């Protein structure tokens, strides 16, 4: 069975579990940092998750979402949850590949380039990912993919040679490496700050989804979006494992039911947001379309280098994930 179907089945069950959950204990107020704009589908889904948890736990867990990196910047959210500064939060784990290469399973170029493939890749990686997170005092609640990643520029680009020297905004290890291998100059900038970076010329290019370009109105500075479909990176909502362990079974069950619903709803929203935001970029005046053959060929070469580098860094666990993924696609 395809993972998407499994997620939908889980959603149906979750409604039952949520109704069965009882209140009990004192109400806990939880702050939930998220890094992306309040109107982004991940953030809206986070608010729906918080509403579901409030209802499902009879008010016992009252989560307030803080979007746009307003409480913690994206890069600091994982540590904040681990150390108990906040009980819960959302983070793009591929930004932490320097801790463990497995965190970058979703940013290997051209490994999984569609929603279906990405769901299979995530399913293959999930047990290993959960094990690594458990060792870091983190419990995974739900994960949602960003739309496929493409390239933004402020000029027409038809080959990697034409990317030489461009100032490139990166958001994780893979995007920085992509910049290096294409002769660009990477500078790491959080999504919440990219409008400013493009407006002031600190950055002139990035790889990201149509969603982030749309959220940040990048047509004010950039002109071209090439649909490369390089990968679909995941945001992960995680809870501090000590906090999680302190909840009674009913509360945990209600929260997991909401998490399953959020995973399915987030995926649907991501799919729907893809076309909507690409149209939004067009309406903003950008040229949006597939990359040309030369650019695709050049990027495939860069992708092959990055894939072998990732496989080497991720060792047996990484190879097992890729093997399981490939077997699931047959
Ligand atoms: N948007 C996020 C990560 C991936 C994406 O599509 C960003 O650009 O920071």
Automatic annotation (TrEMBL):
GO terms classed as biological process: transmembrane transport
Entry's transmembrane regions: none
Principal location class: periplasm
Organism this protein belongs to: Candidatus Rhodobacter oscarellae
Keywords associated with the record: Periplasm, Signal
InterPro entries associated with the record: DctP_fam, TRAP_DctP_sf
Leader sequence residues: 1-23
Keyword Transmembrane annotated: no
GO cellular component, one term: periplasmic space
Source species, domain of life: Bacteria
Protein name: TRAP transporter solute receptor
Localization per Swiss-Prot or TrEMBL: Periplasm
Pfam families named in the record: DctP
